[in-house]
Amino acid sequence: MSMDKVIEFVKTRDHELFNVIAQQGAEPTEKQVAEFEDRIGFRFPDDYREYLVHPLGGIYIEAQEAIWPRPELYSVGPFWSFLYGFFAYGLSEEAPEMMNMPLAWEEMSEEGYPKLVPFLKVIGDADPYCFTEKGDIVIWRHEEPDEPEPFKGTFSDAIVHELEELSERIQLKLKEK
User: Fold this and answer.
1) Could you say which of 84, 104, 125, 129 has the lowest number of CB atoms within 10 Å?
2) DSSP string of the chain?
């Protein structure tokens, strides 16, 4: 795997449009990754393992609030208008609770899906991207939880896909102004 596209995005992003936060300096060790893999019972794909120990692991990407004000409680609008960012879970001990992979996996397990490990979530969407025990990527749909939707591609493909989707939504938001 290569983090090249994600690194390029972070380096060249339009700072007026995107806010990016990462775990820089709080990366887990290879040993911590292996320990979590022992807990879940399978090994992550190599590209995700590379991401987890990279300074950009635990990445949070959102539209700047100045161009995309956050919805207020009980707001209504088109579904896309609530999807102002996304994040990839991390294993850093300093990760915020909402981005903590072990906690997200425990929640999936409690719902009856211990063989699915969430790794990417669009803010405002209840359906996370997950790894299966075979290393495949699926999107777990809360409306049809027993039939996760296959995603063709790698972890980095999923990140790039969501960057493109967020960029398109930002353009829609800018047209509203």
Assistant:
1) 125
2) ---HHHHHHHHH--TTTEEEE--TT-PPPHHHHHHHHHHHTSPPPHHHHHHHTSTT-S-EEEE-TTTSPPPPTT----GGGG--EEEE-B--TTS-GGGBHHHHHHHHHHTT-TT-EEEEEETT-S--EEE-TTS-EEE--TTSTTSPEEE-S-HHHHHHHHHHHHHHHHHHHHHH-
Single-letter code of the amino acid located at 125: D
- How far apart CA 4 and CA 2 sit, in angstroms, is 5
Question: 4-176: which CATH topology?
Answer: SMI1/KNR4-like (3.40.1580)
Encoded tokens for 62: 């959102």
Tens-of-pLDDT digits for all 177 residues of the chain?
Answer: 367 888 888 888 899 999 999 888 888 999 999 999 999 999 999 989 998 998 888 899 999 999 998 888 888 888 888 899 999 999 988 888 999 999 999 999 999 999 999 999 999 999 999 999 999 999 999 999 999 999 999 999 999 999 999 999 999 889 886
